[in-house]
Amino acid sequence: MINIYFVFFLSTFAMILLLFPVDIKPFLKSKFKRTATTKSKEKWEEIKPKDKNRIEKLNKKIEDTLIQGGFKIKISEFYLISFITGIIGWFIGKMLNNFLVSLLLFGVFAYLPYKYFSIIANSYKNLINKYLENAISIIIAAFQSREDLILAIEDNINNFQEPLKSYFIEFVNKVDKFGMSFDESIDELAVKIGHPIFDDFVKLAKIHYQKGGDTKYALLDIPEDFRDHKLIMSEIDAEISSIKILGYIFSGLVVGAIFFQRMTNYNYYSLLVNTTAGKITVFIALVIFLFTIRQIKKIDNQIKV
User: Fold this and answer.
1) What's 161's DSSP letter?
2) Which residues, including other chains, have CB under 8 Å from residue 64's CB and lie 6 or more apart?
3) Which residues span the membrane (predicted)?
4) What tens digit of pLDDT does each residue of 266-291 get?
5) Gap between the Cα atoms of 114 and 78, Å rounded
6) How far is the C-alpha of 21 from the C-alpha of 30, rounded, in Å?
7) 59-72 burial by CB neighbour count: b if 16+ within 10 A, else e?
8) Burial of 130 from C-beta contacts in 10 A (0-12 / 13-18 / 19+)
């Protein structure tokens, strides 16, 4: 019996090992690394946000995702939805008569609402990214002569595609009609757009708004940064896409093996579901499955905007 459980565990554990050699952080650092002078460090230091604890970071990440997806949901409502879906996962685990799996599925199902909102938000971001480089290039060109970001946007608002057009109209109205501060309004715009190069554009625009003068010329590098960013992301995606595909296939086999045993070898399935050793084995297999998915997600996040 021990040999059967050991083989089952070993086969699932081997799947995660395929992902361990994948570490593209050094590759990313070499691609994006820039020499920073003391003057440039001081320039960015004045608008560098303070460190936040993990709970604040988590809440901020959830709120940003909800905003980017266009959802009018409060953070408290989100947690309530997650708890309800987690209860569903708990009961599914109870059907397997496995307390450890119930706990595991509670966490998995509680995560599903965020995953859904994240998918919607990413679809918006992909649409925005199609038009963002062109829109920012137009704004920067107009800004060099107008020397006023609000006027540069107003002059070209009809040249923007949705949803960028609506976002920029809302930004202009908040500053012009509702008297919201420039920094607060453009920070909200940056959250909705959610692109790292646009974040750089926002930082430089805020510096110019505070200091004026020749700081506007720093914006001229932004269009080239967009092109470099797109090229680098495509190169990275090409390098690791095969690893991601293999990871999804093998992680799927972990869960599939359990259901396959139920259909083809019910006696073995009963051992996995009804005995203590079997329950522990299933729990470990599912942990490996979730860890594999997490590793793939971490890799995937490195190539997403």
Assistant:
1) P
2) 191, 194
3) 6-24, 75-93, 99-117, 245-263, 269-293
4) 787 787 778 887 788 778 777 877 77
5) 8
6) 18
7) eeebeebbbbbeee
8) exposed
pTM of the model: 0.65
Instruction: Let me know: does 101 contact 93? Beta carbons within 8 Å.
Output: yes
Query: Whole-angstrom Cα distance, residue 303 to residue 299?
Result: 7
Helix residue ranges per DSSP H, 157-216: 164-176, 182-193, 196-211
Q: Give per-residue pLDDT as tens, 156-205.
A: 888 888 888 888 999 889 888 888 888 889 898 898 888 888 888 888 88
Residue 90: CB atoms within 10 A of its CB come to: 19
In angstroms and rounded to an integer, the radius of gyration of the C-alpha atoms of the chain is 25
Nearest to 135 by CA among 163, 171, 164, 174: 164
The two structure tokens encoding residue 56: 């604040």
Which stretch of DSSP H or E encloses residue 236? helix 222-264
3-state helix, strand, coil in the chain (%, to 5): 85, 0, 15
Helices 276-301 and 266-274: crossing angle in degrees, nearest 10, is 90
